[in-house]
Specification:
This protein has one helix and 15 strands, in the order H-E-E-E-E-E-E-E-E-E-E-E-E-E-E-E. The two termini are 35 Å apart. The longest helix has 18 residues.
């Protein structure tokens, strides 16, 4: 009987763990996308984004000019309990550096931005900086960005972001951990690029997942 309950307990634990896994709502690695175009399911807000190929890898590229802020929306419309991630490439030139971000909740929503000129990771809501943390970015490398939004209770959200180099292990600790008071509108995920260095910015492995309400 003891062995039976042990087996039953393991089965319940397995089922619960399986049920707790995040659900992927959207994902693209551009491998099936047409070179020289932008996927039709994207909403380009501004910028000359096109799919490019290098070393057998397809990715979305934002050209190095003009020097402004550009972005696009992707994935389903969500408001909370959602995670967005992307792999982003950039290069500095002299004392000029790009800035790039992944976002949630639409155009004026949340944005986790790597700002190499400031040596910071910054959390924005619209144009307002909500929080920041030190980060030493490496030029000419792919950087992983992940932004999570969970609803804690009515009028309160837990906003967490991570940034790490592609070849490194994902850190357990959050780079940004912020409690947001107020309301968050439903909106699509986003990527943003500021090619201040005059060099292109690459985007790949865009993903949106549902996450548990904690």
């Amino acid at each position: 009987m003891k062995k039976f309950w042990s087996a039953a307990g393991l089965l319940v634990s397995f089922v619960c763990a399986f049920a707790a896994q995040p659900k992927t709502l959207y994902r693209t690695d551009f491998e099936k996308a047409e070179i020289g175009k932008v996927p039709e399911d994207f909403l380009v807000l501004d910028g000359g984004f096109v799919v490019q190929q290098e070393g057998g890898n397809n990715f979305l590229e934002l050209p190095g000019a003009p020097l402004d802020t550009f972005g696009l929306l992707f994935g389903p419309t969500e408001s909370n309990n959602v995670s967005a991630s992307a792999r982003i490439f950039g290069t500095g030139k002299g004392r000029r550096f790009p800035a790039f971000a992944v976002g949630l909740n639409g155009v004026g929503g949340l944005k986790l931005q790597v700002s190499p000129a400031k040596k910071l990771v910054e959390l924005y809501r619209g144009e307002e900086v909500l929080a920041s943390a030190p980060y030493n970015w490496e030029s000419g490398s792919w950087t992983m960005l992940r932004l999570d939004v969970r609803k804690s209770k009515d009028g309160e959200f837990k906003v967490q972001g991570k940034v790490w180099k592609q070849d490194a292990k994902e850190p357990q600790a959050w780079t940004i951990d912020y409690t947001l008071m107020g309301d968050l509108p439903a909106g699509r995920a986003a990527i943003w690029g500021n090619p201040y260095s005059g060099t292109p910015i690459g985007f790949d492995d865009l993903s949106v997942s549902s996450i548990l309400d904690k």
